[in-house]
Amino acid sequence: MGEITFIVLAALVVVTAYFTVTSPNLVHAAVALMGTLFGVAGLYVFLYADFLAATQVVIYVGGILVLIIFGVMFTTQIGSQVMVKSSAPNRLASGLAVLVLFVGLANIMRQAPWHRGELVAVEGTVKTLGTSLLTRYLLHFEVAGVLLLLSLLGAAYLARREHG
Amino acid sequence: MTSFTDFLTTGLLGLSWVPDSAWAGGVLAVAILLGLAVFTLMALNAMVAVYFERKVSAFMQDRLGPMEVGLFGFRGGKRFWGGIGQTVADAVKLVIKEDTIPADSDPRLFRFAPFLIFGAAFCAFIGIPVGYGLVISDFNIGILYVTAISSVGVIGIILTGWASNNKWSLYGAMRSAAQIISYELPLGLSLLLVVMVVGSLQFHDIVAWQEEHRWFLIHSPFTMVAFLIFFMSGVAEVNRTPFDLPESESELVAGFMTEYSGFRWAIFFLSEYANMAIISLMTAIVFLGGWLSPVGSLLRLLGVPEGWYYLDGPIWGVFWIMGKVAFFIFVMMWFRWTWPRLRVDQLMYTAWKVFIPFSLANIFFVGVWELVFG
Amino acid sequence: MEFTEIIARVDQLAPGAFAPAEEGAGHVWVQPEQWLKVAQLLREDPELHFDSLMCLSGHDRGPEQPLWVAYNLHSMDILHKLEVRIEALREGGSIFSVANIWRTADWHEREVYDLFGINFEGHPDMRRILLPVDWEGHPLLKDYTAPDYYRGIPVLKDKRGWE
Amino acid sequence: MKTAEELKNFGVIKTEEMVLNMGPQHPSTHGVLRLKIKTDGEIVSEIEPHIGYLHRCFEKHCENVTYEQVIPYVDRCDYLASMNNSHVWAMAVEKLMGIEIPERVEYIRVIMAELQRIASHLMAVGAMGLDLGGITPITYTFRDRERILDLFEYVSGARLLYNYIWIGGVAHDLPPNFVQHTRDFLDWFEPQIVEYDRLLTYNKIFIERTADVGVLPADVAINWGCTGPVLRASGVEWDLRRAEPYSIYDRFDFDVVVGKGEVGTVGDCWDRYWVRVEEMRQCIRIVRQALDQLPPDGDVHAAVPKKVRPPKGEIHFRAENPKGDLGFYIVSDGSPKPYRVKMRSPAFCNLSVINEIARGWMISDVIAVLGSLDIVLGEIDR
Questions:
Q1: In chain B, helix, strand, coil percent, each to 5?
Q2: Residues facing residue D19 across a β-bridge
Q3: Is the Cβ of D12 closer than 8 Å to some Cβ of chain A?
Q4: Domain ranges within chain D, ordered by starting residue
Q5: Of A164, B231, B271, D140, whose CB is crowded by the most CB atoms within 10 A?
Q6: Model's pTM, two decimal places?
Q7: Based on the number of CB atoms within 10 Å of its own CB, is B218 exposed (0-12), middle (13-18) or buried (19 or more)?
């Protein structure tokens, strides 16, 4: 069963990622991206990272993707489809870039010293995660929090700039 | 009790009791059967709730509501049971009605989006117990799973608004997106406080905790506030009055579903009532002891020794949880047929300047409360 | 103030603006070229203070005759009233617009333009209000004949039942 | 280097305005009205009303029918206040002809006009609630309005367009026990207003939605020709029944309701709504007094002329309709048909002010303002 599930999820990720990149319509691309994010969430579950998977859905699908679609809708006029224009030279260049990247990544994957072994289910991932976040990784956690707060403030400042 | 990982590793739909070596087709068949069960539950819920809503609104508005269509020869007359077959007739009508798709719409998204909304509600049902042990898969991260999946529905709403190629729909979609994202925060924060006390994200653990101690509604003043915030935010999440701005019929005609008709439109209603049921179920489980009977909980609270007949148990449990859900759905209907609607900025004000600060303060105070009394 | 007093007051402030009032008529004719000035005066003068333009109606005496417009002015604090009339040519007639003095004249003048074809000079937005933009003719003129077709739709002319 | 202007606008997010057509088919335009709205997000920057979808050339019709035959047409103008319309028309023609009306007829007309005023205000109050999303109030106001229509049906046989008030009289005398039925209705109806207050008027959300929204200052209201409850809500004590008493209104004791800005600013949507609610109470007072003073008998046809042929001349007559000052400018050439009729409809002027007061607010507020103006397209388009 496990193999079938993995293949289905991986296929979902690859196919939707392909559509995300190639779809000329931005909203369609965003919908395809949703599939990718779901697939990645599924893969997380597969790696016994269920909390991460749920968080991925909450933040990326429920939050960031909504904002992306929101942005696309706001910046275009209704009735006019958002089309990404592409031309042959671009395709050639991007194809080359993708090829180089693919070869590079494949090379890295081939040479990386992977740990091979049985995956062991961790009971209570949430608890472990919470404990390590508030003990060992407390500083990282706080710094990340401050960084996010700063970006929040910056966004609010930019949005309110209108009156000043 | 399966972990969420087992849910995916043992099968496409978490079937923990199916052995790992089972034939894939068999797993799929069981999964489809369970899916059908959830779908039936949703459809039944919608049909009963629609009938209930009509009768509730009618009696609140000094009229009788549907009273013509009967069922199996039963008419019911001018009483509550009058017109009992009305929703069945409506369902039949909606299914066979012409399904119009606007010429300038985005036809693929137009067709797909309602099912995304429906799918979100459907998947959420997988993780919510409707009685002790009566759950398709009781994940160890149940609460997080339900909130995560429910938040996907908003994408469907935005896409319907965008795909309809109608300015009113677009306004409805934009309002909806802003509203649902905003209200998810107080909703999540209120749940967080319960999770903090219990120490688990699993629905069964939360109810077990309440069985041992007391319902969260009366646990402390702060949890009571959290309950109010949670329920009001839940009403906002499912777009019911006074937060029904995305579909406000007097402003945006029908908001994001203006262009829909027939079966696709029925899907919206199915999802809306399913979402109402989800929010009511979560409120009942998290704050009102789920399937615990009020009688038993009260007796236990008063220190009556174990062994009494508490009206608890699996079957009574379903009765109690469904009673609580029915009550909350009724309250939502009561809101709808009493109050006018808020304006967009007032809606945002309520979320960001009232609910969220209160929720944040609540978390702190509950922490202090637990340190002192816990 | 009574009618004659109002007339006297206006004559004193803007001599020659009003044509001599007919005996017992209750209205007064204004020289079209003086109208804007008189209107300003009627509204601003503290003793007159006609703050409310209650009615503005176009009229047609019949074919070959000039059209006229009646302005029914009322004062809400002094509680007196005055009817002012102005003539306009039948073809291409034009009157100064008072839409900036009494804002309510905005739509009323558009209506008169729509139904009589009198143009109001200086109106901020002079176009038809009740009829479609591409309608031909001005229906309240006495010599108006309805077109047979409007955008290919036959115009109903059967008057049985109401005449 | 950036210019000063560029620097000023640097970082400002430019948004494109969207033109939104509200209507002619829209649930909250109260008929076939089209509002062309320019919006920036949810904020409305300009509203341009397009009217005329219901235009049927009432004024041209009038030139082709006799004076009596105009009555059904005026009934159809403001179809929510038919009695008032035919009352005003009858009074205008009577004044042009110089007819004296019997006492009993005057009282019957006042009773009808005030009951109709209650019915019209009930509609306005309920529809305002509906526009703001409260669906239940309108079912209550409709229920109460039905009882008034029952009374009218009892009197005239019709429920919407009565053709009851004729020139020089009324169509029939009052049916037996009408006075008692009306008293019963008033006794029953008066406590209902308290219920509306509880359900809608003092509802927190309703106040939030209407208080301080769409404020119409008194001078603007007068300048734009607003009349009726819309003008009174702006704090102007102006009621033609009191200012220029016509018919027999000088015999009754009633208050002119004026907007006080109880929950917000004087002249906001809430005040416009509240003035109507309070006016219903005043109407009840007037009807009670009229029922008490009603002469027991008398011919209601005494003054009905055989042929309505007013002398040559013109008249501008106005009276207080539920929506505002309804005026008729009638030119007579001595024939049985009016030579020219101009109807100055109150809702026409009240609607024209919408761009002035709803601009800069949100789409939802435009709905609230429109509901508070209480328009009837039948008399706007005529």
A1: 65, 0, 35
A2: D38
A3: yes
A4: 9-381
A5: B271
A6: 0.84
A7: middle
